[in-house]
């Protein structure tokens, strides 16, 4: 089984995903927020690229969520902070979500057989489900403004570690060079992730505008053991118990 890590959405090509399982990673904050929303009873999350698409796709009763330049979009119910999706009011709601990088990365992965949302907070269970699907795996780091973001790379390194530890197939996993580099970087920083994320570009930016608590939350490892996946209607839903239900026709 091959495991390829792609540094940013700008470097991804559609053909990179054919017949593969894609794990989209946007630690700060889209995939962390999607995982959180669904774990708190949100019915589904529809990821879209643009603000206009979000407004067009909204049906009566749906929530609009999203950000531009890390701030909530005017007129939307919520921004892109995981803490905005922990309230009981989110239960049974559909959220139409647009973010600068993460939802675009999900859209870029549409040729994959399976698309999962990954982050530090669900890495172990997400890696396990990806392995159970018995496809080559692509870890797509969303990045920031079309360039590499350290937090996503370190999270991809954690996924490589989890995949190696959980893999029961022979021969061993074959990881691309960038994936091996991120694995080494994760092993170097794993005991001090909060500090590392607070000091990377994304963490500094969020902290400066009042979202330091988000960064600390998103640095938590395996704290929310559920996995969002993209279904045939292009929405993200949650099947935390039965991986076979993740299989798309």
UniProtKB/TrEMBL annotation:
Any coiled-coil regions, as ranges: none
Co-factor requirement: Mg(2+)
Organism (species): Paenibacillus selenitireducens
Enzyme Commission number: 3.1.3.71
Similarity comment text for this entry: Belongs to the ComB family.
EC top class, as a word: hydrolase
Gene Ontology MF terms: 2-phosphosulfolactate phosphatase activity; magnesium ion binding; sulfopyruvate decarboxylase activity
UniProt keyword annotations, A-Z: Hydrolase, Magnesium
Protein name: Probable 2-phosphosulfolactate phosphatase
Reactions catalysed, as given in the entry: (2R)-O-phospho-3-sulfolactate + H2O = (2R)-3-sulfolactate + phosphate
Pfam families (UniProt xref): 2-ph_phosp (PF04029)
Domain of life of the native organism: Bacteria
UniProt keyword Cell cycle present: no
Family annotation (InterPro entries): ComB-like, ComB-like_sf
């Amino acid at each position: 089984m091959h495991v390829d890590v792609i540094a940013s959405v700008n470097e991804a090509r559609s053909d990179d995903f054919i017949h593969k399982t894609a794990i989209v990673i946007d630690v700060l904050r889209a995939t962390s927020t999607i995982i959180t929303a669904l774990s708190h009873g949100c019915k589904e999350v529809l990821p879209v690229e643009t603000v206009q698409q979000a407004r067009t796709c909204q049906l009566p009763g749906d929530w609009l969520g999203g950000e531009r330049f890390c701030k909530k979009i005017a007129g939307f119910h919520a921004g892109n902070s995981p803490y905005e999706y922990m309230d009981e009011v989110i239960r049974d709601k559909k959220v139409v979500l647009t973010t600068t990088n993460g939802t675009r990365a999900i859209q870029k992965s549409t040729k994959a057989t399976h698309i999962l949302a990954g982050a530090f907070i669900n890495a172990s269970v997400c890696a396990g489900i990806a392995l159970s699907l018995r496809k080559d795996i692509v870890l797509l780091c969303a990045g920031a403004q079309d360039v590499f973001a350290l937090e996503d790379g370190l999270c991809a390194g954690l996924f490589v570690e989890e995949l190696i530890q959980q893999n029961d197939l022979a021969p061993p996993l074959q990881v691309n060079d960038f994936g091996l580099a991120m694995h080494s970087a994760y092993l170097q920083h794993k005991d001090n992730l909060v500090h590392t994320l607070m000091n990377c570009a994304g963490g500094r930016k969020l902290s400066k505008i009042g979202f330091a608590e988000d960064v600390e939350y998103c640095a938590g490892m395996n704290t929310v053991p559920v996995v969002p996946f993209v279904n045939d209607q292009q929405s993200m839903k949650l099947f935390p118990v039965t991986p076979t239900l993740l299989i798309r026709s």
